[in-house]
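Supplementary notes for students who missed Thursday's class. We covered one full example, reproduced here. Read the sequence, then the structure, then the short commentary at the end.
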Amino acid sequence: MEYEFRRNSLTGTFLASFSMDHEVLGQWFTEELGPELAKIQQVLDMIREIKTDKRGAWRLVGNDFTLELEREQARVFANTLGFEQEYELEEAMSLYDAESEAYCGLEDFELALLSWQQFVEKGL
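Structure (token representation):
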């Protein structure tokens, strides 16, 4: 999983981009976390609790995306994925949701989050 962090020089917003199959992580970092250091620390604290078996799992529901943390993995998905389809798709057709959901190992997610934290701290 590759990622890149940038800051928009015109608006001052922090932007995260992740490699293919993990694009939604970039949206989550950008839109749900942003430069909120307290929220970043909260997620890091929950990862630490999960890794030390003080907590089995944890979920953070945001405006557009939800983060789920478990012992082995992190999952980010668009909140709209939970809605039922109101129509039937033709046979051999399916909805493309690769940009709406992504899984990665908990340690990889933690490293990306620590990098984001450092990036934000330098940019504030």
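Commentary. The chain is about 35% helix and 25% strand. The chain has a mean pLDDT of 89. If anything here is unclear, bring it to office hours.
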